[in-house]
Amino acid sequence: MSFHEKSAWACLVGIVVAYVPYFTVVLRFPMAAIGLFWLAAIVLSAVLVVFHIVNAIATKSIRSRGEVPPLDELDQSIELKASKWAGLVLSIAVVTWILVATYSALLVGGSALEQAKLAGSEVSTSAFSISVFSAMVAIHWLFAGFVIANVAYYGGIVWGYRRIASA
To answer: Which residue ranges make up each domain of the chain?
Structure first.
């Protein structure tokens, strides 16, 4: 297994270890996000730092030359394909989020306007409001799309190397 494949594995595992518990909690309790976000970032950073130190020590070419092996054409091709798929996943996530957020905002805003109309008060756009809870849920779903795109990226790199190794 090459240094770059091991690095992709570490990033993939680190993202899963840090963000599966994060999203498990914040998608049920969206207001718990601030502290948990920083905790997940610290956990991800710690996992990656420890792995890359161990990987650098264990990789013979780094020990003998003191530098990370450069990316060759094969590595660049694998990374390019993984980037393409990750970009596709991210664009689908963002477009889906925009459609859902727009539709939800219209429902919530329309509901607020209807309530104002039924109450006999003046109907204006100032009656349109979205709760902080709903906004935080939407933000978490958008961030989840970003994390899933990163999982697709590193998973694509691992899959590219594994496909070559099995061929």
So the answer is: 3-166
